[in-house]
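I am still getting used to backbone structure tokens and would like to learn alongside you. Label the sequence line and the structure token line clearly, so we can match residues to local backbone shapes. Go ahead whenever you are ready, and we will take it from there:
>
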Amino acid sequence: MEFTLIKAWTEDSIALVQLHRPEALNALNPEMFEELLTALEAYDADAAIRCMILTGTGRAFSAGADIKQMAGMSAVDQMASPAPARWERLRRLKKPIVAAVNGFALGGGCELMMCCDIVVAAETARVGQPEINIGIIPGAGGTQRLTRVVGKCKAMELILTGRQVTAAEAEALGLVNRVVAPELVLDEARRIAREIAAKSPIAVRAAKECILKAQETSLAVGLDFERRMFALLFATEDKVEGMQAFLEKREPKFKGS
């Protein structure tokens, strides 16, 4: 795959995608978002890939939407925008995505980060939803996902003030899994991705679907979904291999079948 606004490559069973508009702090214009989805969906469909990493070039993971493009849009333009469908395509990805947040993750960049499944942040990273500062609100899930992670009071504070938080505060709020030195952020993301890639890809996908279901439904619906997914995994060869390897005290060799 060849792109102009992102970089994409593989390392064994790991796929890496890097937003590459450093002159615009990796602002998410439609062209970049389409390239991003094209790469992620291709890797999601590739049986050889078991985990994906998303990061940015330069000083930012992504500083948000491209305000220059948004400035001239009307309410009618927004209602007709294909952007919601793009975000929905991102949500439907089955394989886990590890975000390596190398710098600013603001506005749409923060929403993109929250769409990932595990987040590693550089100590110098800054996270926030500053849309209120330009007279709008988060429009790609920020009010919903942030509230589900940090709770109503903190979400109110961060969204209504537009305040950016440090990587350490983001970790304390549960937005970030771990914080490392800037030069180590991609290495740590790789380490986590490789650890996930060593597991059964069928079980990993099932676990991700169950966890997302917990965010989107009631406890009763989530428990029913989990029970069905749990039972279905007993029909896989990976279940047989995993349990046999455990009994034989050896490392399992999962095939994704």
The beta strands are 6-11, 14-19, 51-56, 60-62, 97-101, 104-106, 118-122, 126-128, 165-166, 178-180. The radius of gyration is 19 Å. The first strand starts at residue 6 and ends at 11.
